[in-house]
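Figure S7 source data.
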Amino acid sequence: MSLLNKLEILADSAKYDVSCASSGTKRNPKGRLGRNTPGGCCHSWSSDGRCISLLKILMSNICIYDCAYCVNRISNDIPRAIFTPDELAGLTVNFYRKNYIEGLFLSSAVTKSPDFTMELLLQTVRLLRKEYRFGGYVHLKLIPGASWELIKEGGRLADRVSVNIELPTRQSLALLAPQKTPDSILRPMKSVGALIQAIRRERKKTKKAPLFSPAGQSTQLIVGATPESDRQIMMLSESLYDNMNLKRVYYSAYVPVNSGRNLPSVSSPPLLREHRLYQADWLIRFYGFSTDEFLDEKNPNLNTDFDPKTDWALKHMETFPVEINRADYPQLLRIPGIGIRSAGKILTLRKVKALRFEDLKKLRIVLKRAQYFITLSGRYFGDEPQNAEKIQARLRIPVQDKKKDSDQLDFFTRDPNRLADELSAITGEL
Ligand code: SF4
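Tokens for the predicted iron/sulfur cluster complex:
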């Protein structure tokens, strides 16, 4: 099979994995081919919000497992291919030199055994780092069930590593991916998290300590293939951030590529749900919220009509309006339409003068939303009094312009509520 055929098959097979983003790495490029930026510039986003500037590819799509939701499962009759480490390392460097890519996202189906597959992945990255002296970004997928020594070497060679959890509960894993066990996924994740922390502490003492997955580890959760609520998913993510030191959890709307009696009957991926989960995830990681604040047993799913921060504010009108010229940073972060950057700018500007409504416009705060929740030197600017129902009606996206569950991100919408909502998926400003 030609290299081009392999490339077509194995790039296509990798497209369902969304757990790649290249932020946060600081690998030193001195004397090496390729460059990394700590600011996370070496990625871009496709129309559906997925990362595209890395060569995102599988080593092999020949799989010994039969996960019900996966296009590469052993029971599917699809074209199969496998790269040699030489082929894949050469291809990556060629693409890099032609400026097609800035890094590599390398994953694989489980071919022969977890250790066999992990060893193939490592041979590829070893070639890149040692033979080609490639200093660019590498995100390496760790294969559940592979031995700790191999996983450790992966962390030493890559900028970021990830093990995909895929399904949120033990029961769902047993139902749809019975050959994987929670232990084979969570054990390496926990050990990698602990080692990342240990190496970070070590490197504070001496820069000679070896790098180990400097951009952290991430994972992917499939949303909508099994009946778990948003609350279960967010509680899991929260515990992964707290206990396993994860950098990111990626949510992947279930794409129905197979049929089977254990699979749900859906015609299109639940993209609006995925979008709301990403927004809730931002709020947990950067805004000081916890899952319990937006979701409980009675309301276990995120409101699709509003972003989770606006939804929370509408249910807690007693905490508003907040006086912009006096509020502290955590209070500012709770105002719909004021994100992390805007809150910081408000604090800086407030040192020199009391802010007016026009100042907030210049700070590019989403006043369409924020106006209902703030005062400026005692003055309320909302065109509705403090009435949650009336404000809800103002902020709700018109039915004809409402994003359907299967809609892609649309930056050409005319409705400002929807546009601000769409942009928050990229900027994290809510
Ligand atoms: S292990 Fe499961 S999810 Fe991964 S490629 Fe094989 S069938 Fe797909």
